[in-house]
Amino acid sequence: MIFRNKLIVVLVFFMNCGYYSYKGTLPVGISSISISSVKNNTSEYTLSNLINEKLSNSIIEDNILRISEFSSSDSNLEIEILNLKESPEVYSVNEVAFGNVDQWKMEVTFNVKWKNLITGDIILDKKSKKWAMYNTSDLDMNNDNIDNDLDGFIDSQDSDEFGAPREGAVRIISNKISEQIITDLISNW
Ligand SMILES: [Ca+2]
Ligand SMILES: [Ca+2]
Questions:
Q1: Beta bridge mates, 88
Q2: Nearest ligand to the C-alpha of residue 160?
């Protein structure tokens, strides 16, 4: 019986730690967030939806903040996609001679502004960049010999690498942007 009580105490302790792990790093008085529709200055219109969907899901799943309407929220998040660049990344000697490029780098610059709606303070205003690699030969990302998200795992080793080249690059970048925003929200300032 004593053992069982101790076990319960230990369990409650760990459950509390888990629950408060994010809360402890959030700004004082902030428990909810509203997310404005993503402002997208690029012609890659799917970016907005992908980022919004992934970000909202992560905030809910990780129990970071309650998502609510702007009018009843402690804070507001504005995401602006500033630009998208695509540039040739890898040339082989022969291919340069023939003017071919077999890898492209897609790079998206975005800005995140997080505002405390109670005090009017800007908690975070940060510009970042995320990128992905894709092939020009229309191979599936799972079979292109490229580490598309630059995480050290290639093709079948990496569950994030699938789909048509450009489409996959947009998806990978959207995921990276969402992850970066989550990291920024729960980081100390
Ligand atoms: Ca990879
Ligand atoms: Ca790949």
A1: 104
A2: 1
Mean pLDDT of 12-39: 73
Binned at pLDDT 50, 70 and 90, residue 100 comes out as: low
**Distance, CA 43 to ligand 2 centroid (Å)?**
25
| Residue with tokens 């996959």, as numbered in its chain | 168
Q: Calculate how far, in angstroms, residue 84's C-alpha sits from the geometric centre of ligand 2.
A: 21
Distance of CA 109 to the CA centre of its chain: 12
- In terms of DSSP bridges, do strands 39-40 and 75-90 run parallel, antiparallel, or are they unpaired? parallel
Nearest ligand, CA of residue 176? 1
What pLDDT, in 10s, does the model give residues 53-86? 999 999 999 989 999 999 999 999 999 999 999 9
Q: Quick check: 131 pLDDT over 90?
A: yes
Distance of CA 175 from the midpoint of ligand 1 (Å): 13
- Count CB neighbours of 132 within 10 A: 28
Please report the domains of the chain, with CATH numbers, ordered by start residue.
Answer: 25-187 (3.30.160.150)
**Amino acid 18: pLDDT:** 46
| Distance from Cα 58 to the centre of ligand 1, integer Å | 21
Q: What contacts 156, CB < 8 A, 6 or more positions away?
A: 142
- CA 158 to ligand 1 centroid distance, Å: 5
Q: CA nearest 126: which of 169, 84, 187?
A: 187
Q: How far is the CA of 115 from the centre of ligand 2 (A)?
A: 38
